[in-house]
Amino acid sequence: MSMAGDKRRVGIAGLGTVGGGLLKLFQQAEPLGDGRLEVVAVSARNRSRKRDVEIGGYEWFDDPVALAASPNVDIFVELIGGSDGPAKRAVEVALARGADVVTANKALLAEHGADLAKLAESTGAKIAFEAAVAGGIPIIKALRDGLAGGNRINAVSGILNGTCNYLLTEMEASGRSFEDVLADAQRLGYAEADPTMDVGGFDAGHKIALLSAIAFGAAPDFSRVDVEGVDQVTLLDIRMAGKMGYRIKLIAKAERIDETVRAHVHPVLLALDHPLAGVGGALNAVVVDAEPVGRLSFVGRGAGAGATASAVAADLLDIIDGAARAPFGKPLAALKSYSSAARADEGRFYVRFLVNDKPGVIAAIADQLAKAGVSIESFLQDPAQGGTDVPIVLTTQRCPRENLDAAVRQIGALDVIAATPRVMPIEETSAKRAWS
Predict the structure, then answer these.
(1) Please, what sign has the CA dihedral across residues 122, 127, 133, 137?
(2) Which residues of 283-345 form beta strands (DSSP E)?
(3) Predicted pLDDT of residue 29
(4) Residue 401 parent element (H or E)
(5) What dotted CATH number matches 346-427?
(6) What angle, rounded to 10 degrees, do the helices at 401-412 and 361-371 form?
(7) Lesser CB count within 10 Å: N end or C end of the chain?
(8) Looking at the chain, which residues constitute the CATH 3.40.50.720 domain(s)?
């Protein structure tokens, strides 16, 4: 491979939104990296597809694996996506021959990051992936290079999926259902035709697995992330939460608890003064709690050609400047092996029931909660809207989650319950640790 200071030859696999945006950066008047970087080859599924960026001046590869294997490429940029298949094979081929890799592929790294880091160490190659989490927010570098060394990071959390944040924001603003807003988002290109990775919480889960690895000096392990998406959040939940002074957001969080780490993705009710509650639309945000620096917040665009391509470009510049570090902050052998913490053990919770409008229903619910040792803090009943089923919403005082789950299972079995009850954690303010 070429040494730092020499012109480095770049091959780009994937010419979608991000790949096209990256090529535009290379084709601008002022050369990227003061001319020390040069795109020499590209690959995509369809060569003849109409693009708003010129590709005629680069060597074309139909197969991204062949591009990764090319001796004419010093740095392989993988923008294909997917945890397996061509993306994984191409990255493995590039690393095996000692080529550096820049990728925006969070699924690949969250599920195979340790193996890829081991391969890179064996050949001296570098892996950089700032664009894999939160688009244009430089959170990987902030954690790995700026915070993890001199601070003890206790938790990292945030809004890591712009599609979900857009859906929840639009539902609240427009009063339309999840299904209606999702259909519009798909038409506008904000959501994929198959939105499962986004609305199911898996995209945010991959990202928090990577942030957790860097924050706590461990190898990424997506299998340990507890994932729940927004596909079961209803307009009723958003309206009732609003009446109680909360806003629902999909929050990904990883926290250190003694010698364990808990990582999870859940819809959460945030008090309106919480630093993440006001992050709307398709924006991303990350909050880091560390000692001695305290709490730091990062907000910015989490996707799109400009934001994500700029993160890829920053990684390329780090590589040619010799600034790229071990992908997860330390050599693989120095990474810790944390056990997984149990599901949230204690907190305050929002519980929504849909019940038949009959006498004694509220008493039956309260009785089951009392038997489980769960105290009700607030209660809200929405009058029936021309039907026999009535939504009942309550918030609990701080209680063990397992106690609440046991009570909800008992309540869900009552013949007056018309739908599966819904439970979501509540986080009060930036100053209170209300869920974990």
Answers:
(1) positive
(2) 283-291, 294-301, 339-340
(3) 63
(4) helix 401-412
(5) 3.30.70.260
(6) 140
(7) N
(8) 8-132
Q: Identify the band that residue 381 occupies on the pLDDT scale cut at 50, 70 and 90.
A: confident
Give the pLDDT score at 259. 82
Percent of the chain with pLDDT over 90: 65
Known catalytic residue: 24?
no
Coil, strand or helix: which one is 408? helix
Non-local CB neighbours of 349 within 8 Å, separated by 6+ positions = 395, 396, 399, 401, 404, 423, 424, 425, 426
Q: Give the residues across from 417 on adjacent strands.
A: 355
Phi, psi of 4 (to 5 degrees): -55, 135
Predicted confidence (pLDDT) at residue 89 exceeds the cutoff of 50: yes
Task: Tell me the two tokens of residue 156.
Answer: 């990292």
User: CATH 3.30.70.260 spans which residues of the chain?
Assistant: 346-427
The stretch 263-274 carries a mean pLDDT of 94
Sign of CA dihedral 259, 263, 268, 274: positive
| CB burial readout 345-381, b (16+ within 10 A) else e | eebbbbbbbbbeeeeebeebbbebbeebebeeeeeeb
Q: Which residue type sits at 417?
A: I
CB contact at 8 A, 134 and 302? yes
Catalytic residue from among 126, 207, 249, 330: 207
Query: If you search the block for the tokens 């105290």, which residue do you land on?
Result: 375
Q: Which CATH superfamily is domain 8-132 in?
A: NAD(P)-binding Rossmann-like Domain (3.40.50.720)
The candidate with the shortest Cα–Cα distance to 19, out of 106, 116, 105, 88, is 105
Out of 3.60.20.30, 3.20.20.100, 3.90.226.10, 3.30.360.10, select the CATH number for domain 139-301: 3.30.360.10
pTM of the model: 0.90
C-alpha closest to that of 91 among 18, 197, 21, 11: 11
Outline which parts of the chain fall under CATH 3.30.360.10. Answer: 139-301
Structure confidence at residue 434 (pLDDT) = 41
**In this structure, are strands 225-227 and 260-271 parallel, antiparallel, or unpaired?**
parallel
